[in-house]
Inverse folding.
């Protein structure tokens, strides 16, 4: 087996850059398509009401999903930024504790 690692050398600038580059997917076209008209009541067809209800339910599920993804990306970005700051802080604390 290899030697055990006694230190971690992280690049805080790379951690911050990663966090700043995180972007959620562009959901505007998806949301627009989900909210597009279902075509009314189906042109008088008996199935029209069922189709409209299914369309309405699907649109609500798309909105819920895309909102959840947006919130997830925001949380992940905050987590990545916090990790970089924590790493920098712990690194500085460790350096202060080293004997001269």
């Amino acid at each position: 087996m290899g030697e055990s690692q006694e230190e971690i050398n992280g690049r805080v600038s790379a951690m911050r850059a990663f966090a700043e580059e995180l972007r959620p997917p562009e959901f505007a076209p998806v949301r627009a398509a989900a909210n597009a008209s279902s075509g009314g009541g189906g042109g008088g067809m008996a199935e029209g009401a069922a189709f409209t209800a299914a369309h309405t339910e699907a649109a609500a599920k798309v909105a819920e999903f895309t909102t959840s993804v947006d919130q997830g990306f925001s949380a992940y970005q905050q987590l990545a930024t916090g990790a970089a700051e924590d790493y920098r802080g712990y690194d500085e604390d460790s350096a202060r504790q080293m004997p001269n």
Q: What stands out?
A: The longest helix spans residues 48-97. The chain has three helices and no strands.
